[in-house]
Design a protein that fits this description.
Strands 1, 2, 3, 4, 5, 6 and 7 form a 7-stranded mixed sheet that branches. Helix 3 packs across helix 4. The two termini are 23 Å apart. The radius of gyration is 16 Å and the shape is globular. By secondary structure, the protein is α+β, with helices and mostly antiparallel strands.
């Protein structure tokens, strides 16, 4: 599950929370990531996992996490050395938190959580893609499109992004 955690300021501006993974994490150390994301246990429902991951990774209490809404599903394949193509499916949620709420790392998997305006997020995805955990970049692009921060006017590959046929 991947959760786009965001808030709206008093001025109505959107801030998206972005995590920096722990530099000692075994996979993708120090990379930018979704504020909340985690693998899906076989014995747990998707929404139950969202609530669990919200607390573990970002100190988001259950009463706030329960406001998460399922918004999309992203699927892709990636090449694993000596194995071949591996399919992945991401279940994506949006969670708008109160304007005075600041997620905080809890379980040691995240070093820091930043509040970025959508244009800062877009610039980072565009200019520093190597700094992002790949699947989190996909989920953030999905968020930017669905919330109207990325359109065909600014993005030459917009039609491919919205059809999921970049590759």
């Amino acid at each position: 599950v991947h959760v786009n955690v965001f808030r709206r300021t008093d001025q109505g501006e959107t801030q998206v929370f972005v995590a920096r993974r722990s530099s000692v994490k075994q996979t993708f150390p120090g990379m930018l990531d979704q504020c909340v994301a985690g693998g899906q246990p076989f014995n747990m429902g998707l929404f139950e996992n969202v609530v669990k991951e919200c607390m573990e990774e970002a100190s988001i209490p259950e009463e706030i996490a329960k406001n998460a809404s399922p918004v999309s599903v992203s699927s892709y394949c990636y090449d694993v050395a000596n194995i071949g193509l591996k399919p992945e499916v991401l279940f994506n949620y949006d969670l708008e938190v109160p304007q005075d709420f600041q997620p905080k790392p809890l379980d040691g998997e995240v070093e820091a959580i930043y509040a970025w305006d959508p244009m800062t997020l877009l610039r980072s995805l565009d200019k520093e893609p190597e700094g992002w955990k790949t699947n989190s970049a996909l989920v953030n692009i999905d968020f930017l499109i669905r919330h109207g921060f990325l359109s065909g006017d600014e993005c030459p590959v917009y039609s491919q992004l919205t059809r999921n046929d970049l590759y």
